[in-house]
Design goal:
Radius of gyration of chain A: 17 Å
Number of strands of chain A: 5
Oligomer: homodimer
Shape of chain A: globular
Order of helices and strands of chain A: HHHHEEEEHEH
Largest interface: A-B, 36 and 36 residues
Number of domains of chain A: 1
Structural class of chain A: alpha+beta
DNA sequence: CCACGTTATGTTATTATATAACATTGGCAA
DNA sequence: TTGCCAATGTTATATAATAACATAACGTGG
């Protein structure tokens, strides 16, 4: 499926994992097997995955005993908290963060057709939001910007 | 509760309802009693309300027979579809739209402390997002921008 | 090494959110 | 009136998330 943009997906996953390992190590966090597996599964798909899908995949995939919801959610919380994945609220799902070290000032474009979610770093948008917040004297803790529509690939395929 | 900013809330609700009635009438939509009641309840609170809270409120409030989830969701869908309310994804909740006639290019600021959600129209943010989308050749269907943080009022109260 | 506190995971049950599928009602126009 | 269509009602169930408590694994100071 996916693999739309001719990028080497296996490599892409591998590098994301290495990246995550480096980040965890540098911050004194433990990238346990479970965390690593879930991160890998999330990354394996470029489309956001729900917690329950992940549970199933874990069960099949890794021959694990069957991981219960709380375990998955805790793990996802960990990954979100440390910026390794994003929660996609419009889909109740999770997707890998493509630049986990940075400040997470990004826009998530979600394609209606192929469900691919791509994260775009946009200082302009970020700045506009913060100016707007400042005008309200609103102190930003966390922002969430999700745009739903049709990606370039799908638009091309469906004229 | 709320009534933070010294605005006359009753009036504010009333005008929102009148506004909605006008919009429906002009578009040939039916603002039925149920729709009207739910819209009123949503507006009555400036904080986003969940579907199930609304159900309870309907039951107590309007002496109605007890409205089941599908009915509430359908009604909420109608109101969202025609821009009379917004869905707040970060909270799985709904809040009145303060300018239902316009193009809905707005930012929703949600206060962590008092749960108030306020909608701010910001052409700058809107523009930045669309420029960013254009760069990706992404066709925007719907966008969602929610910012969580501390509102001016709460920041003032808690030094 | 081991006793202990801490962090991570397991387990069971439950709550919260949302929709599917089909039945009934009510307005309205031919 | 009849017949259609939109709105609401009803029953059951799917999907998402958390609470509360139990156990295991990890590492540090003694």
């Amino acid at each position: 499926m996916s693999s739309s943009k001719h990028h080497d997906h296996k490599r892409c996953v591998t590098s994301a994992l290495e990246n995550a390992a480096a980040i965890c190590s540098s911050r004194g966090l433990r990238l346990t097997p479970l965390r690593r597996q879930i991160l890998e599964l999330v990354w394996h798909s470029h489309r956001p995955l729900g917690a329950y899908s992940l549970m199933e995949m874990l069960a099949e995939h890794s021959g694990r005993k069957l991981v219960a919801p709380p375990t998955v959610y805790r793990t996802l919380d960990f990954l979100v908290e440390h910026g390794l994945i994003h929660r996609v609220h419009t889909l109740n799902a999770f997707v890998g963060c493509s630049h986990p070290a940075g400040p997470h000032s990004d826009v998530l474009f979600i394609c209606r057709e192929c469900q691919t979610a791509s994260e775009v770093h946009s200082p302009q948008v970020y700045k506009a939001i913060h100016i707007c917040a400042a005008e309200q004297q609103f102190k930003v803790v966390q922002q969430m910007l999700e745009v739903v529509g049709i990606c370039a690939g799908c638009a091309a395929r469906k004229p």
